[in-house]
């Protein structure tokens, strides 16, 4: 497959397939755990523990995927994620008990880190004037999947059941893997001469030494931690409020996906000469208040509207943090630094849901408040990142001009 538009279409399609499958797993895990025979009080605890176990594998590997892609093959790193995803969903569908499910989540921990490699690959082959559109097209895949995935999943439950739906998800991931294997080009690029460890260490040092980059990564961590925790416990909260949760989960998450898709394009318009980082303070503040409302008001409509109001925070974080990195990082280091962004995200998806899982026996509301606190921290970090961002240089004036 040649041409940046064709490759962009390939990445859009495969990312939609992957996101559909993962969305089903997130949305219907509480129902699946109940089907396995877990008591209601254990469902909340295991929901967080399974998510944390997946991130325990993803987190230590996060720094290396970008360096491995540069050193060996971008295509190999991307399809690695998709083949392991197919295996993980199949294991979940066939699991006889919770320990097999735990093993499947450990396998799924090996699937993280491919989106940043996909974006870096797309950036390498796309003309500069079309780069924003190309990246937005890839990022819109997750909202598209979130719009249609949960309602489709809720419909599939009545036809093939939870395990049948998970087998279909395994087939979706396998389809994405085969498409990538045979159609994704390997961009021509000079391979780094140093070792993978040396390249990873150099990039990590660069991130740590620059204050403004540290704050950018802090926002990645806290924003993703809040989102992962609320996404994990929202279905549990819904099961507390309604008697037939499956269609409600599908509707709530479907509308959330539409709202996120619309917000993604709107957030792109907020990118400015400083990356638009200033808009993250209000968006993360709204997400924190919305999460508190989910806990404070025992109404399914309040929970639904509060969840939908978080859509812009997710869309803005994805778009504006990448745009901010383009502004603050030298061109020679951008690919390596962007490929390192899964590290704070994966660390957050392990640490924050793990804290929520420890507190979940006190109630699902307490677990959700952990997500609210993480969003509040993201708002503060975004403000500090904005303050640390140097203004763009003034335009050059030709000689003899005032």
Characterise the protein shown here:
The protein has 402 residues and is mainly α. It has a single domain (4-183, 195-388), classed as Growth Hormone, Chain: A (Up-down Bundle). The chain is built from 16 helices and no strands. α1 packs parallel to α6 (131-139) and α10 (245-268) packs parallel to α12 (300-309).
List keywords for this structure.
Growth Hormone, Chain: A, mainly alpha, 402 residues
Write the layout of secondary structure elements.
Elements: H1 4-35, H2 40-71, H3 74-94, H4 98-108, H5 114-125, H6 131-139, H7 141-183, H8 196-209, H9 211-241, H10 245-268, H11 280-296, H12 300-309, H13 311-328, H14 334-339, H15 342-359, H16 364-388
CATH architecture: Up-down Bundle
Coarse structural class: mainly alpha
What does the oligomeric state look like here? single chain
Enumerate the spans where pLDDT stays under 50 for 5 or more consecutive residues. Answer: none
Question: What is the helix/strand order?
Answer: HHHHHHHHHHHHHHHH
CATH-assigned homologous superfamily: MFS general substrate transporter like domains
Can you tell me the CATH class? Mainly Alpha
Q: Identify the overall geometry.
A: globular
Rg calc: 21 Å
How many strands, which pairing sense, and closed or not: the largest β-sheet? none
């Amino acid at each position: 497959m040649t041409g940046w538009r064709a490759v962009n279409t390939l990445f859009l399609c495969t990312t939609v397939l992957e996101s559909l499958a993962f969305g089903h797993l997130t949305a219907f895990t509480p129902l699946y755990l109940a089907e396995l025979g877990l008591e209601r009080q254990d469902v909340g605890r295991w929901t967080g523990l399974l998510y944390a176990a997946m991130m325990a594998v993803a987190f230590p590997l996060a720094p290396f995927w970008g360096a491995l892609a540069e050193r060996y093959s971008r295509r190999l790193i991307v399809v690695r994620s998709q083949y392991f995803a197919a295996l993980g969903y199949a294991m979940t569908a066939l699991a006889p008990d919770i320990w097999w499910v735990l093993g499947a989540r450990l396998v799924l921990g090996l699937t993280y880190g491919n989106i940043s490699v996909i974006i870096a690959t797309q950036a390498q082959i796309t003309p500069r004037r079309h780069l924003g559109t190309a990246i937005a097209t890839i990022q819109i895949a997750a909202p598209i999947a979130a719009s249609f995935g949960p309602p489709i999943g809720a419909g599939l439950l009545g036809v093939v059941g939870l395990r049948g739906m998970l087998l279909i998800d395994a087939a979706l991931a396998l389809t994405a893997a085969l498409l990538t294997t045979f159609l994704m080009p390997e961009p021509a690029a000079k391979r780094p001469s140093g070792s993978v460890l040396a390249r990873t260490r150099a990039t990590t040092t660069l991130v740590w030494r620059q204050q403004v980059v540290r704050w950018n990564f802090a926002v990645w961590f806290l924003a993703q931690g809040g989102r992962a925790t609320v996404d994990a416990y929202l279905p549990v909260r819904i099961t507390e409020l309604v008697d037939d949760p499956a269609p409600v989960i599908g509707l709530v998450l479907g509308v959330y996906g539409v709202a996120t898709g619309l917000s993604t394009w709107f957030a792109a318009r907020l990118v400015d000469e400083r990356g638009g980082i200033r808009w993250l303070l209000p968006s993360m503040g709204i997400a924190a208040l919305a999460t508190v409302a989910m806990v404070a008001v025992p109404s399914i409509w309040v929970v639904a509207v509060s969840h939908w109001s978080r859509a812009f925070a997710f869309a803005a974080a994805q778009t504006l943090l990448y745009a901010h990195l383009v502004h603050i990082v030298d061109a020679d280091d951008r690919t390596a630094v962007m490929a390192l962004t899964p590290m704070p995200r994966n660390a957050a998806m392990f640490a924050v849901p793990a804290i929520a899982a420890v507190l979940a026996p006190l109630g699902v509301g307490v677990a959700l408040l952990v997500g609210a606190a993480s969003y509040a921290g993201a708002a503060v970090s975004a403000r500090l990142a904005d303050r640390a961002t140097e203004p763009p240089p003034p335009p050059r004036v030709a000689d003899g001009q005032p």
